[in-house]
Amino acid sequence: MARIIVVTSGKGGVGKTTTSAAIAMGLAKKGHKTAVIDFDVGLRNLDLIMGCERRVVYDFVNVINGEATLNQALIRDKNCNLLYILPASQTRDKDALSQEGVGKILEELKKDFKYIVCDSPAGIEKGAHLAMYFADDAFIVTNPEVSSVRDSDRMLGILSSKSRRAEQNEEPIKEYLLLSRYSPDRVKLGEMLSLEDVQDILSLHLLGVIPESKSVLNASNSGMPVILDEKSDAGQAYADIVDRYLGEERPHRFIDEDKGFFRKLFGGK
Amino acid sequence: MSLLDYFKISKASTASLAKERLQILVAHERTSRNQPSYLPQMQKELLEVIRKYINVGQDAISVSFEQDENQETLELNIVLPDLPIKNT
To answer: How far is residue A229 CA from its own chain's centroid?
Structure first.
């Protein structure tokens, strides 16, 4: 049975697209046929992060309007042949998406794909609403920062009241926390909310902590999902997240600070 | 205690301040989230009825809904203008 995953946050700039690209690639690399859809109509960026921006011919809105078939619009990933990207339209506005149209496309995708990852735009307007509406699982991407935590909590309220599962009284969407841009050093200094602080407020099932990492910018610069950078801390964090989502046991990492040379010398904990 | 601890700033951390502010705010926002969904529509209709008789502005009415373990309270507040103008 196919599962629809929405990657959402409310707030912008927390790493939704980075996460969508990474987990979609991770799931596909594990042998599951996966589609990743950009819901940010008018401001598409998933194509850039996936490195397929020059191969976009048709988009999500073209398919909804019947101007192209789903197969024409889906772009096969250059690194993994089980991964397909459905780009958002760059020229239309967000009203071009309709609930009926999105529902129909998702139903069609479910026949052929194991996982469908919906990259939500920021905000709580139409694009974000439609990205989460049909979801089975929600990945809440949160930064350890006040505005992000607040917006995540708001998003949780929307998931539990405005989604299809909520409206039809079905089993609720499974909600998972992905805490990104985490700096254990700054947490230790009392400059950043800790994982525990965030969990005291949101109390979600933790899928993983992604450390603040240079590799994320390097990955987006080159159009390669960061999970392919297997040596990087962020890449490993996403690989763990995919494994945990698939039910494998992985001890949590990147929560405690690095014991650098200086610290070891002075015996810091 | 390591040598490093001597250099740590002892004042209250901004992270704990952030957590405290968030806990208050999120608790408040969660209660308003549980308000019945008909509230905005009811407020609009009540305002229309009142405006048939009294010349009040759009923001002259406030509705608040509170819920505790035993009861639900619906509070309706209408601010009347200084001089009622309409005579019907």
So the answer is: 17
What pLDDT score was predicted for residue B1? 52
Q: How far apart are CA A52 and CA A47, in angstroms?
A: 5
B chain contacts of residue A263, beta-carbon cutoff 8 Å: 4
**Pairing assessment for the beta strands A34-38 and A115-119 based on DSSP bridges:** parallel
Ranges of H-type helices in chain B? 14-33, 39-53
pLDDT at A156 over 50: yes
Residue A107 carries which side chain, given as an amino acid letter?
E
Dist. CA A179–CA A194, nearest whole Å: 10
Band of residue A269 on the pLDDT scale cut at 50, 70, 90: very low
Interface predicted TM-score (ipTM) over 0.85: no
Q: Does B38 touch chain A (CB under 8 A)?
A: no
The structure's pTM equals 0.82
- Measured CA to CA, the distance from residue B71 to residue A202 in angstroms comes to 27
Using a CB-CB cut-off of 8 Å, the residues of chain A touching B26 are: 149-150, 153, 201
Confidence of residue A127 (pLDDT cuts 50, 70, 90): very high
Best residue of A145, A153, A156, A257 to probe chain B, by most B CBs closer than 10 Å: A153
